Structures are given as structure tokens and as C-alpha cells.
């Protein structure tokens, strides 16, 4: 039976962080019940001829959903055709989780928890508009361990307003001391339409300069590697065999189904994108109408480009053999000029049948990736 991954989007947050442009909303708690019912309907319509190998409940803040709604979701997930070796992740945020919810996640079969920390310093957390402080994060982390979750990811961010190198080092050192299985380190991106964007436009957002940000990233790679975390993707570091299998599905251009508001799917060369409006989603699911904003059939050109962009995010890079097999063309015939240019500059490396970004290449990965547009 064909295997596939499943993403479930929970669009509710207690409060919107000032940098966030995800499809997530604060102050819509009254819609949780109806939304969960709609999710269940969508779950029930999943193809039965596929086995689910990973589930990722993301958001928003899945742990903000009420216990009652989480129980409804749990019942619906029970009915899914799951692989016995499934990786099942739930994203949680400190300040929205308690022992009852964690116990329910255990019963649900969740075996991986991803916690949003972002920074170790309470002043930086406040500046980001996070709802929690460090103490609440520590309580959350300990609670997860107490419930025997032995695969935990912690999200951290660098390049934050007023964040110094010292702050970042302190964040990394303390996160490593906690000994999570995976650490994700994202650089802050100022997204249009966010309060941070407006502040940035007005010149009132004080960000670390480019050199400091680059230093923060290099430090992070070296420090985490030294402490037993292997970088397996531009922003992700894990202990041996603890890489996030669900996220690897995206980077390997494998198939996945996304359900809920704003969710994306990629099945048999088609890309689907759901509406981002919660009321519209609920109404359309209930009426049995199409909830997709668009359905797009990837051309061969799209597939090749996506294979390169996504594959080069991984530290192992892309397999030359897989490219040639998948597209029935030699990679050097398609990208020879660009590959040779970056291989000579030392920004790309070819080794054992794989092409990947060098450490220097990772620092300028965005401009390298652009060149793979055909
Ligand atoms: S908790 Fe996450 S999804 Fe919610 S607003 Fe903050 S960053 Fe966005």
C-alpha cells in the first residue's frame, strides 16, 4: 500500500506574535468547536488506499485547542490507516498546555513534541509578542519529559530585535543543556503585513547587522555539531536518527496531504492549497464544496526546480542518481553551467554521488537557489 504523510493545521493562537505571517489567528476561540468538526469531516474523507507514515499537527498552536476538541480529534485520528512505525508530532506552546492535554496526546499516539521557545531571555520573548516566559517554557519541557516524550524539538530564533551575540550563545547553551533530540534554529524574516514589518519600515526595529547575523548562524552550526547535533537541513539539527521524518517528506519532494485552513497538499504531481479563512473553510466543508483556493499541476520544469530547492536545503543535498532517474535526464545536462560555477567557487560540493551546499554556500543559499530557476 502506498505511504503518505498527513499535516493537520490548527489555526488558533492565544495571541498573534509580532513577526508571524502564518495562517493563525488570535481571539477566535469561539470557532474552535465548529472548526474541529469540519476537520473531522475532512479527515474522514481521506483516501483509504494510503497508509499514513507521519502525522504533524501544526499551527497556530495545536495545544491551545480545548481538551474537549482535542478529544474529538483523537477519536477521528483513531480511524486513520496508520503505519505501525508512525512518527506523530504535535506542536505546542508554553502557556497553552497542561498534564491533561499531554496525557491525551500520549493516548492519541503522539510520539514527538515540538515546543516553541524562540529565546532564553524574557525581554526578547516580550519583544516578539510571545505569550510565555522562560519559566513557563521550562515547566512545559519538564512536563513533556515526565510524560515520557522521548523525541522533543525546541524552536529557537536568531537575528531578533535587540538580540546580542551573547543572548544567542546563552540560548543555545541552555537549550543544549536540556538535551532535546532536535533543535530548529530559524533566522527572523521580516514578513510583509506583520507588526514587525511596519516597525521595520518606520526604522524603529533594531535588528542585528548582517555580519552579526551571519556570525550567529555559523556559531550555531559549530556549537550544535560539537554537542552532538548533526545539521540535516539549513535550520534543523538532530541527534542520531532523530531527524524529523515528516519535514524530510517536504524536502524529499514526497507526497503529503494537508488538512485544515491554509493547508497544502502534494499528491501525484498536483499541488492543492486550502482557503485561509476559517469561516469559509467551515462553511465549505459542511456543504461539501471545494475548499481549495487553487489546484496546480506541476510541470516537469516545476518538479525539477522544486527538487533542487528543497533538496539543497538538506545537508546531504541531492542525489545525482535520483535526479537522473526521476527526470530521465542527466543533471549536468540541465544545470551543468550553474553547478560547475558553484562547485568551482566552493559553494557547492559533489561527493559520493550527492551535490550539497558547503558551509560557505549555506550562508548565501538564497542567491544560489535562485539560479536553479529554469
Ligand atoms: S504561536 Fe506560532 S503560529 Fe501562533 S502567532 Fe506565534 S509564531 Fe505564529
From TrEMBL:
Record keywords, A-Z: 4Fe-4S, Chaperone, Cytoplasm, Heme, Iron, Iron-sulfur, Metal-binding, S-adenosyl-L-methionine
Pfam family, one: Radical_SAM
Localisation per UniProt entry: Cytoplasm
Taxonomic superkingdom: Bacteria
Residue ranges occupied by any Radical SAM core domain in the UniProt entry: 1-230
CDD domains, per the entry: Radical_SAM
Main subcellular localisation: cytoplasm
Entry similarity comment: Belongs to the anaerobic coproporphyrinogen-III oxidase family. HemW subfamily.
Function of the protein: Probably acts as a heme chaperone, transferring heme to an unknown acceptor. Binds one molecule of heme per monomer, possibly covalently. Binds 1 [4Fe-4S] cluster. The cluster is coordinated with 3 cysteines and an exchangeable S-adenosyl-L-methionine.
NCBIfam families noted in UniProt: hemN_rel
PANTHER family: COPROPORPHYRINIGEN III OXIDASE, RADICAL S-ADENOSYL METHIONINE DOMAIN-CONTAINING PROTEIN 1, MITOCHONDRIAL
Protein name: Heme chaperone HemW
Species whose genome carries this gene: Clostridium mobile
